[in-house]
Specification:
Length: 199
């Protein structure tokens, strides 16, 4: 099986998004939003953790996450055999009423992790960016430009929605270049060290 020195993953988290049904409430200026299911299948934390990641002994991993799943993303990173290193932030310019409760969500996060001893190509003098937004769930190409500036090929994008030159892809919206087996988990909760163990 092909092994990769850099893996980017955008897991299909179990979330719902808000959509306006066209009605208004709380006065005529406020739209009432309702929760709707996403257009793609989602995965549980246990299912994501159980994936056998095809990484080299010395490798980098970047996992996209949202506020709701930050803690679990650290668990997934460890279950995949990586040591969490840095939480990166995509600060999004607000575009009207968005998802969230007391605060409207205008950030997404990327957990960067390491396995073994793979040095970075270069140092980046920031942990946050204001990349341009696209359609729902679409990640900015500038992010992968940054990954290529820091980390080494071969590259794999997991849960990809399109192909990128120089990268292999895995996902249900593209023809995958690799197959990723699933481990059988003996427990679904992390141990005291935050790891999810497999048989």
């Amino acid at each position: 099986m092909q092994k990769y020195r850099t893996i980017v993953a955008d897991p299909p988290w179990e979330v719902q998004r808000l959509q306006s049904p066209g009605s208004r409430g709380f006065g005529s200026n406020v739209e009432v939003l309702r929760s709707v299911k996403l257009e793609y299948p989602t995965m549980t934390i246990e299912q994501i953790s159980a994936l056998e990641i095809p990484a080299e002994k010395d490798a980098h991993c970047y996992i996209w996450t949202i506020n709701k799943y930050i803690e679990q993303t650290y668990q997934i990173m460890r279950a995949w055999g990586f040591k969490p290193s840095q939480l990166l932030t995509w600060g999004k310019t607000p575009m009207g009423l968005g998802m969230g409760g007391t605060f409207s969500n205008t950030t997404e996060f990327i957990l960067f992790g390491r396995r073994g001893n793979l040095k970075a190509k270069q140092r980046i003098d920031s942990t946050w960016w204001n990349w341009k937004r696209g359609v729902h769930s679409q990640k900015p190409e500038a992010f992968q430009d940054m990954v290529e500036a820091v980390s080494y090929p071969p590259y794999l994008e997991m849960f990809a929605r399109r192909y990128r030159l120089g990268w292999d892809a895995f996902g249900n919206e593209v023809e995958s270049h690799v197959e990723i087996p699933v481990r059988s988990l003996t427990q679904h909760a992390p141990d005291k060290g935050g790891r999810v163990t497999a048989e």
